Amino acid sequence: MKAIMTVTAADRVGIIASVCTLLASMDVNILDINQTVMQGIFTMTLLVDTSTSSHNFDEIKSALIQRGENESLVIHIQRADIFDAMHRV
To answer: ∠36-39-43 over CA atoms, to 5°?
Structure first.
């Protein structure tokens, strides 16, 4: 299953490493990634594949939210099919 993730925070060293290391530890594959920094605000969008993970979507989401709380990151993840349905014109 594919999912869309966003990560935002005040820019600092290690944000990408932290998020990507967590995803790798849960066997979540990153299919596409885009990041930018605008006026000191870090923003990253990822397309991930959770189908290879032994963790279900809710466990992955919970781990990401916990990481966000621990590191002052705002992390959102949503199933790609729901994202697509919400943004279909």
So the answer is: 30
Spans of the chain, pLDDT less than 70: 83-89
pTM exceeds 0.85, yes or no:
yes
CA angle, 37 then 43 then 32, to 5°: 110
If phi > 0 it is left, if psi is from -120 to 50 it is alpha, else beta; for residue 7 that is beta
18-35 per-position pLDDT tens digit: 999 999 999 999 999 999
Q: Which domains does the chain have, with CATH numbers?
A: 2-87 (3.30.70.260)
How far is it, in rounded angstroms, from Cα 50 to Cα 88?
23
CB 42 within 8 A of CB 72: no
